[in-house]
Please model this.
Amino acid sequence: MTNLLLVWTLAFLMFHFERELFWNALIGIALTWVIAKAFQLPGQFADWRERSKEEKVNNEEFFNVYQPAFEALRQKYDPKKVWNEATSVPQEYLDELRTLNRKHRWMLKRRNNMDVD
Model:
């Protein structure tokens, strides 16, 4: 807390008595921060790429669980696969499908960007 008070006092005095020096110091501090973050950036990109690869593998594993369940549900209610947009779909099918989608909501959102009610 004392250091913060000293920095604030120094900044206040520099701003009122040495404005040019104040702005130079402020810009110098900002540039130092930007350069420090620039050196950290490649490591963050590598970590991000590694995490995204792991997420894709996990999504595919869970999709391989979801897809057969979805196909079994469709086979149960539409064995001939004749449904389209113009046909009426049974409410039981919609309820079971909604339950299945809610169960796999996070995977559908990350993999297909699909929002589930």
